[in-house]
Amino acid sequence: MRLSARIKCFKYLVYAYVILISICGGAQLVIGAFLLWTHKQYAPIVKNQFWEPFAVLIGLGVISQALCYLGWTSASRKHRCYLGLFCAFLVLFIVILFLVSGWSVATKAHLIVPAEVAIEASFSEFLAKDNTNDQTHIWNRLQRDFRCCGYNGVSDYKKNKQMGFPWSCYDPIDTKVFNTGCMHVFVRSIEMNMIRVAVVAVASALIQSLGIFCAIQLTMLLRRPTLMLPNGDNQSIRVKRTRELTPLSPATIGNPTPHSSTKPPIPLKPVVPRVDQPVMKASH
């Protein structure tokens, strides 16, 4: 296959690869925004903690789009330097995705104790202020949406005989009381969101690593073009032009280089010195 045809083939492969990266980045943006929005609705219960992995996932989605612009522009202009930067940034970005995945798993493993303490403190405040009849209170919304009741269960309300079950603890269909405690359900929900972040990061890293070979190959093909000389040697065009513009010296004429033209130098014609004829004077 000719060099120009190979460059054109890998150029379109890089275009397809950039579109794939853009799709992965869009998925990161959408999933990260949805998880962050879901978490922010009940974040005050855990003192606004554990939102960082979702925000990082959104940031990685934005960086993916910036990388797509760099890769598309570099491939369309066939700029070898920018393509090299695109490959380097892409490798670094894939490594960061794997690190974010591990960070999310580590956060999931260490959030149980601080989450339990924050949820218990929030529930105690909810009972102390007697906000069970406030339909807009965050605990009523949590119990209604997660189908749970109390901190550990319905026993938290039974301890206070003067306080009945709030309306949010009842199933609207069969009017039964939810028996599951909200602490277990809510912590489990945060843990699952952390796992989702880890899965999205790993999947994006694996997908985006599939076509990096195409970008590297295109970068290598866009090296300085060469010419095939009659003697079978490859010579750079840039070097050839430089030699053509270099003035010839007597040493170069007498000793031609191996890569120069194979034609013998034109011999110089000998110069015959001019001799003036003597002038004869007439005698008187």
Automatic annotation (TrEMBL):
Sequence ranges of Polar residues compositional bias: 252-263
Transmembrane domains' residue ranges: 12-38, 50-70, 82-106, 194-218
Major location (coarse): membrane
Compartments where located: Membrane
Phosphoprotein listed as a keyword: no
Stretches the record annotates as Disordered: 244-272
Membrane topology per record: Multi-pass membrane protein
UniProt cross-references to InterPro entries, sorted A to Z: Tetraspanin/Peripherin, Tetraspanin_EC2_sf
Entry keywords, A to Z: Membrane, Transmembrane, Transmembrane helix
Domain of life: Eukaryota
Record carries keyword Calcium: no
One GO CC term, this protein: plasma membrane
PANTHER family assigned to the protein according to its UniProt record, in alphabetical order: TETRASPANIN, TRANSMEMBRANE 4 SUPERFAMILY, ISOFORM C
Name listed for the protein in its UniProt record: Tetraspanin
Native organism: Anopheles dirus
Origin organism lineage: Eukaryota, Metazoa, Ecdysozoa, Arthropoda, Hexapoda
